[in-house]
Amino acid sequence: MARTGTQMLLLVVALTATAAAISGASASSIPEEVPPYNPLEHDSLHAKHFDGGEHNAQFDHEAFLGPDESKKFDTLTPEESRRRLGLIVDRIDEDKDGLVTLPELKNWIAYTQRRYIEEDVGRLWRQHNPENNNTISWDSYRKTVYGFMDDLSSEEREQEENGISYKSLLKRDRNRWAAADKDLDDNLTREEFTAFLHPEEHPSMKAVVLQETFSDLDKDNDGKISVDEYIGDMYRSAGDEDVEPEWVANERESFSEHRDLDKDGYLNEEEVRQWIAPNDFDHSEAEAKHLLFEADADHDEKLTKEEVLDKYDVFVGSQATDFGEALARHDEF
Ligand SMILES: *[C@@H]1O[C@H](CO)[C@@H](O)[C@H](O)[C@H]1NC(C)=O
Ligand SMILES: *[C@@H]1O[C@H](CO)[C@@H](O)[C@H](O)[C@H]1NC(C)=O
Ligand SMILES: [Ca+2]
């Protein structure tokens, strides 16, 4: 399956959001045994979304419900999950004509996204700023999130897993902090902190997001993205397979035909920018179109409640899905 612009953007969004969430989580777990941040987990996000080239339904669930709600749905029975989805469909249907249109779906997705960002920022603001000052200073943020590094040797700080080390994470946060700090006092207001945590929503953060994505991809730090770095980001051969899956071959072709615009065999920053964030890209609209396409059984470009409920697994999760995943994972234990 070819990776679309939508999926790539979702990936970037998920990555940045998760990095922030992890930074947040680490504040309370300054550790000896438990590292506050496992660099491997960071990278496994890539793998998760594109595992074996399959589209991961969790990304759609999170876009439709928001990450918090989506986790709740994962614990419900299929019946309860469908019942609640029915109630949500009534809310999405703004003009109450019994049909969900593309604009209605798009508004809903944009709303869940805003709601999630507000909750997430609120949670991390309280955590990093318990005295509720007007701003958070870099020094205080660094201490709570990366203070544990003071006790590490420089080898430990620089030790890489999949090209990511604590040192590089600190550097990434520092750069992003500076980009979010509009008035250049090195302290972030709540608004600036929002841009720091969710840069995907802020035009002024585009350059720093591009830079982070580029250096994630550029494993050998030579300033350009080879086709293997491009593929390696989505797919790691298990080692014992001689034949690449077809979708990997398709991605190679798409690299040279659509991504490598100047045909020099590598992606430069501009080519990566074109790929991850085309100028006119609207995340909510792209996701709404995708969901509509998946559920619109009679192809009239509107969804009845029945059409949505028939495809409830596309929109929301349930215990049944989780159970299936648990079974699939069983091998590893
Ligand atoms: C809040 O203000 C106090 C007093 O100035 C300061 O010690 C503390 O570090 C500040 N907290 C943050 C998160 O910047
Ligand atoms: C930034 O925050 C620190 C710590 O709270 C404070 O001492 C300093 O005065 C602040 N700087 C500005 C320019 O507000
Ligand atoms: Ca500031």
Automatic annotation (TrEMBL):
The cross-references to InterPro entries, in alphabetical order and at most eight, read:
EF-hand-dom_pair (IPR011992), EF_Hand_1_Ca_BS (IPR018247), EF_hand_dom (IPR002048)
GO biological process terms on file? protein transport
Query: What are the residue boundaries of the EF-hand domain, all occurrences included?
Result: 80-115, 205-240
The record's CDD domains line, in alphabetical order, gives:
EFh_CREC_Calumenin_like
The protein's matches in SUPFAM superfamilies, at most eight in alphabetical order, are given as:
EF-hand
Gene Ontology molecular-function annotations: calcium ion binding
Q: Which UniProt keywords apply?
A: Calcium, Signal
**GO CC list:** endoplasmic reticulum lumen
Signal peptide positions on this chain? 1-27
| Coiled coil start-end | none
| The protein, known as | Calumenin-B
Gene name of the encoded protein:
scf
